[in-house]
Amino acid sequence: MSISDHLTSRLRNIDWDFAGSMSESPFSAIHWHPARFASQLPATVIGLLTRPGDLVCDPFMGSGTALVEAQRLDRPSIGIDLNPISCLMARSKTAAIPATKVNEIIQEIKAEATSRLSELTRKCPLTTPPKGVQQKWYTEPVREDLTILWNLILQFKSLKATIAQAAFSAILLPVCRETRHWGYVCDNTAPKSHPKRDVLEGYTSVLDRLCNGYAERDKDRTERLGKLGDIEKAAVICGDVSEVLETLPENSIKLVVTSPPYEGVSDYTKSQRLSMEWFGIEIEKLRLKEIGARSKRHRISALGDYLTSLRKAFTRAKHCLRKDGFCVVIVGESSARDSTVAKVSSEIVSCGMHKELDLNRTVSSQRRQAPSITGEHLLVFSK
After folding, report:
1. Is-above-0.85 flag for pTM?
2. Is 119 part of any domain?
3. How far does the chain reach from its first CA to its final CA, in angstroms?
4. Residue 194: Cβ within 10 Å count
5. Whether residue 295 sits in one domain with residue 207
6. What is the CATH number of the domain that holds 358?
7. How confident is the model over 184-206, as a mean pLDDT?
8. Cα distances (Å, whole numbers) of residue 19 to 27, 291, 334
9. 362 and 258 share one domain
10. Among 96, 186, 357, 369, which residue carries the largest CB count within 10 Å?
11. Distance separating alpha carbons of residues 255 and 264, to the nearest angstrom
């Protein structure tokens, strides 16, 4: 089904740069993640190309921004990602319960964390961090506080555990000794500074931002609907994108909206090294499965492998799309590497989709996950 002339005109007339926009979701930037979606991108696309109740899918979910916006706009959604930390982030931001209930859970977590990190508790015998945690990342006071907090979190269950773990993961980079750039953590380089960090302050701040995100979600929905109503569910699935898409029903998805990894630009798995050490997740196994990883960029077959993986994913995504469905893909341009936009677009067309639009957007310096990424293409396909 092709896009109507009216809808095409609306899409072309949107300022996709969102320059100076202040409507970014409160959930944004709670947890570090490379190449995070600007929330206005999926929000605008979902609002124009779907109706409430239509199923939205992001097969390269990242931190779950598309799912957050789909839930806010009353669309059920499915998000897929290979990275367990990304999945944890997404689950912590998309609980299908009222914000008041989430707030109750968060207040419990804050109270228990504050109690455990009191001066009295610090005098008690302290267990060590998990075996895989490298001591080089933290000053001794920070490492002690993190260990106390970690052992508390291990006692939690269900959504309380998800939120507590996500907030813990979110503070690891801000409280660590590496102050230069996240790439040094990614590459496992020894940090050189000894900054003073407050673990409890950072932890409660993240929890407060999660509260604000849920409160804004419910406020927005209530203003639009006149009541809170039932909250659509966001299913988060951790695994290989092609394998997971094989399990989804054909003709079930109205909109695929995603930003697949840019070829050779970032190491999404290694960027979450600090969290993976605490959670006991083996980095190397995931890195080898990662599509377009920067660590693979010098392989002779790197580009071919990248395009083959995308073709497999979008071939299956096409089968999952409804006959009236659309696929919107955000692809970045890197000045440091040969452009892959045309190649990615061609691969998606080879899957049996029809390219409707190719729109350009400028990426502001504040949003760039790498200095070389200055622009992106918003590609719109129909089934």
Report:
1. yes
2. yes
3. 6
4. 12
5. no
6. 3.40.50.150
7. 95
8. 19, 30, 20
9. yes
10. 186
11. 27
